[in-house]
Amino acid sequence: MYIPHNNITIPEPDTVVWKYLDLSKFLDLLLSKKLFMSRSDKFEDQYEGTFSEPTYLEMKKIAENNPKFLKYYKKHREKVVVSSWHINEYESYAMWQIFTQNSEGLAIQSTVGRLQEALTVEKRYEQYIGAVNYIDYKKELIPFEDTFFPFLFKRKSFQYEGEVRIISDLTNYKMEINDGVKINVDINKMIEKIYIHPKSQNWYNNLVFQLMEQLGFNFTIEKSDLQSDILI
Questions:
Q1: pTM to 2 decimals?
Q2: What are the tens digits of pLDDT across the range 139-148?
Q3: In the list 140, 143, 198, 208, which could disulfide-bond 135, CB 3.0-4.6 Å?
Q4: Residues 18, 109: Cα–Cα separation, whole Å
Q5: Alpha helices by DSSP H, 33-141
């Protein structure tokens, strides 16, 4: 279930968000009606869930009298799972390039409000939504009075991601988390529109339409116009 969090900055409900993924992951989402959330320490960025240098120095001072303090934060990364979405009013050419391959990807267009509604069907785990802050990890401090903060800060080098995250802390659940977990979502509330890869071929476009029809979904589907014909 989605729960507002006092310390997390939440974008306005009508903020447009995107998820770019390949066809296999998209079909897994539709067939299972579950959203995959990755374990935070499995992301490519090794700094995920860690602290900036000024924060680490502050934490080391505390850890002098409490050795378990730093160990807790290191272990905590294994119990936090994340689903990443891209904030943008329009499609992002860069996101197509990064998250899809072979011109056969798809993009889900949604809003923050839709994500909040879609999460209401998950009764097992509490979900939180927050915008990522991009900072200088050598100079700026990350607050550590709230265990969610390390997962809502990234280095400025990743600012192009414009990320909003669905986050769940599974520390209190006695479960083994390998690569991540799948959570229940209301697919129809979550997906507002589907865009097909701008470089996709006609056979692929037809396949996507056929699959949606056979699976009983009536989402609005559009071919991305990033590769549309020039006018002159």
A1: 0.90
A2: 998 887 778 8
A3: 140
A4: 5
A5: 53-63, 68-76, 93-99, 112-118
